[in-house]
From TrEMBL:
InterPro entries per UniProt: P-loop_NTPase, SNF2-like_sf, SNF2_N, SNF2_RAD54_helicase_TF, Znf-RING_euk, Znf_RING, Znf_RING/FYVE/PHD, Znf_RING_CS
Domain RING-type: 251-294
Stated name of the protein: RING-type domain-containing protein
UniProt keyword annotations, A-Z: ATP-binding, Helicase, Hydrolase, Metal-binding, Nucleotide-binding, Zinc, Zinc-finger
Organism of origin: Chlamydomonas leiostraca
Gene Ontology MF term list: ATP binding; ATP-dependent activity, acting on DNA; helicase activity; hydrolase activity; zinc ion binding
Family: Belongs to the SNF2/RAD54 helicase family. RAD16 subfamily.
Length: 361
């Protein structure tokens, strides 16, 4: 559609302007964009699968005679992931958003069997797939020893079982609530993935299901974080708190479900680790651009659910699952370490491997 293509062009213009601003007058986006490269190779190319991020727009703008995308997981969520690769590769006509939608996405939606056949033909022209079974002149590309796989089952303790069931019940309620609100398919998809993430975390260790004591850098909420959150208007603060507690979109930085979410004042939810890494790289100006909308942000514009809740005097959650333990115990940085059955079992297995290899200390 024309409006979708217009959005794409506007996003590219914003990214270009932001890059030029960050690099200084006349820099044209920086030194990387002033060089005409012989070959540009994107390793872990799925990092640019989200066309809304600045990383994607920056990769598209690189000038090169040859372009390669390397990835073990080229499609992680849907066929939409391919568009950003085609845009980087300048694979016409599919690098045009309208053409990609019309020639590939719409065809798959109308008739999946025929649509995927078309996609297979489109990919055959540019895709080189290699597996462990691939050979050159009759010889394996890589000679690897046989894989040894053992399935180890570990039962929960009684306390862990109670906690897991509580997380599961909370997740089912959240999924049902999202379905009742009739949100977009992408929001419901992310909601489902977020629920699965919480369940996986609960299997590993209850503390991974973050609670009140967790902030952007871990530990307890600081007075400065609460003060920054209090500057946010009450209505917006409530909306940001809801987003931080239950993300509706993927992290703009990594494109995955936000893990231990934090939210920006422009209402985009990031993984805590993704955002912390971005904040640590800030210069003296203390400014950076949101990866989703190019909004100028400072470190005081990023909020954890804990800080937002403390600023509004709102309890973070009422269930034990929100506090990281079946008994609702605090899980801040000063809490005494408590292991889990899975962690203990993993340590036993690693110790056995060390001893088997004759590397015992």
């Amino acid at each position: 559609k024309d409006d979708e293509w217009g959005w794409e062009e506007r996003q590219a213009a914003k990214a270009s302007a932001a890059a030029r601003k960050a690099s200084g007058p006349g820099a044209g986006g920086g030194l990387l964009f002033q060089i005409h490269w012989h070959r540009v190779v994107l390793d872990e190319a799925q990092s640019i699968k989200n066309p809304r991020t600045l990383a994607s727009h920056a990769a598209w703008r690189l000038a090169a005679a040859h372009r390669w995308c390397l990835s073990g997981t080229p499609i992680q969520n849907s066929v939409d992931d391919l568009y950003s690769y085609f845009k980087f590769l300048r694979y016409k006509p599919y690098c045009d958003h309208h053409s990609f939608k019309t020639l590939i996405k719409d065809r798959i939606a109308m008739d999946p069997e025929k649509g995927y056949q078309v996609l297979k033909v489109v990919l055959q022209a540019i895709l080189l797939r290699r597996t462990k079974q691939s050979t050159i002149n009759g010889e394996p590309i890589v000679k690897l020893p046989p894989r040894e796989q053992n399935l180890v089952r570990q039962d929960f303790t009684e306390q862990e079982s109670v906690f897991y069931k509580q997380v599961q019940a909370d997740s089912m309620k959240a999924i049902q609530a999202a379905a009742d609100q009739q949100g977009s398919s992408s929001q419901q998809y992310v909601n489902m993935l977020y629920s699965l993430l919480k369940l996986r975390q609960a299997c590993n260790h209850p503390w991974l299901v973050r609670g009140v004591g967790r902030t952007l850098y871990g530990g307890k909420v600081t007075a400065a974080e609460v003060a920054a959150a209090k500057k946010v208007p009450a209505e917006l603060r409530a909306q940001l708190l809801q987003l931080a507690q239950r993300p509706q979109e993927q992290c703009p930085a990594c494109g995955d479900v936000p893990e231990d979410p934090v939210v920006s004042k422009c209402a985009h939810v990031y993984c805590r680790q993704c955002m912390a890494g971005q904040l640590e790289g800030l210069g003296h100006e203390d400014e950076f651009l949101c990866s989703a909308c190019s909004h100028v942000l400072r470190h005081t514009d990023i909020h954890s659910a804990a800080a937002l809740a403390a600023a509004g005097g709102t309890p973070l959650a009422s269930s034990p699952a929100a506090n990281g333990g079946a008994d609702g115990a605090a899980t801040g940085a000063d809490a005494a370490w408590v292991s889990s059955s899975k962690v203990d079992r993993l340590l036993q297995l690693l110790t056995a491997v060390r001893e088997r290899n004759g590397a015992g200390a």
